[in-house]
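Quick log. Single chain, no ligands specified.
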Amino acid sequence: VQNLQVAVEELKFRYETVLNENKKITEHKCLEIDKVRDKTEAELKKLEHVCDLMKAAEAKQQKLMFWKRICAQKCKTLRELQVQVDDSSVTFTGSLSLEEENCTIRKKYEDLKRQLGKMEFQNEELACQLRKEDESLQCSKLKLEEKIVEYKALTRQLESALEEGRKMV
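-> predicted structure:
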C-alpha cells in the first residue's frame, strides 16, 4: 500500500509538472498568436492605405483620359478652323484690298498658330501628367502585390501557430 501511495504521489507530481508545462506552452503559443495577429492587423492597415492609393490613382488616370479627349477635340476644332481660314482666303471677296486681306489672314493665322501651340503645350503637359500617374499606379500596384504576399505569408504563419497551439493543448 505504501509503495502504491508513493507511486500515486509520484504520478501526482508528474501530472502537475506536465500540467504546468502544458499551461506554459499554451501561454507561450497564445503570446505568439497575439504577436502574429498584431503583425497581420498592421499589415492589413498598410494594405488598406495602398488600396486607397490605387483607387485615387485610377480616378486620376480617368481624369487624365478625359482631359486627353478634350485636348484632342480642341486640336480637331483648331484644324477645322485653319481649313476654314484657308478656304475663306481663297474665296474671300470684298471691298478690302489684297494687302488688307493678307494682313487679316496673317493675324488669323498667327492667332490660330498660337492657339495650336497652346494646345500642343497643354497636350504635352497632360501626357507628362499621365505618365507620372501611370508610374505612380504601377508603383502602388507593386506595393499592393508585395503586401498581399506578405499578408498571405503572415496568415499561413498564424494558421500554423494556431494549429501548433491546438496540438499542444
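Residues 1-168 form one domain.
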